[in-house]
TrEMBL record:
Transmembrane portions of the chain: none
Entry-linked Gene3D superfamilies: Lipopolysaccharide (LPS) transport protein A like domain
Name of the featured protein: Lipopolysaccharide export system protein LptA
Function, as annotated: Involved in the assembly of lipopolysaccharide (LPS). Required for the translocation of LPS from the inner membrane to the outer membrane. May form a bridge between the inner membrane and the outer membrane, via interactions with LptC and LptD, thereby facilitating LPS transfer across the periplasm.
Highest taxon of source: Bacteria
Primary residence: periplasm
Record domain Organic solvent tolerance-like N-terminal: where: 36-144
Similarity field: Belongs to the LptA family.
Amino acid sequence: MIPGQRTSILSMSVLLSLSMGLAEAKDADFNQPVTIDAGRQLVELADNKVTFSDRVVVKQGSMDVRADKLVVIRSEQGLQSMTAHGAPATYYQVLNNGQPVKAEAREIHYDMKARTITLLKDAKLKQNDNIVTGYRIRYHIDREQMEAESQGGTDRVTTIFLPEQLQNMNDKKAQD
């Protein structure tokens, strides 16, 4: 494992949870060890790149990322990006409120410099029965802004939510 890789995986789980805009990642997860299980690992020192392949599973507490391939790229300044590839690559984590959050896409990309996380190609975010789908779903960390995009043509962004779940969230926020 390259130095700082644990931080990048931890950051990915935090950012995906934030992209839902609904709750925080489970706090206890971040004190757990990160385990990456793969059929193969290739370290390319000259390119500052580590590629995990063959049924990749990343676990930390309740966080679970599954992909066909995971590529971690590092620059002189530290970690630069991390991309999970799959058909689809998936993300799952239990939040502090006990609710699971799920994400999937053919690519899940975290750019540390731009401070964005992007779900690309058949992107889907789900919490409870609330779902956002599109070709691309991008979360800008610093702006706390999520944007979902279609590919154009007949492709559309779709959002499905249950009003009672939104009302329950608003009621909980009012109590806090």
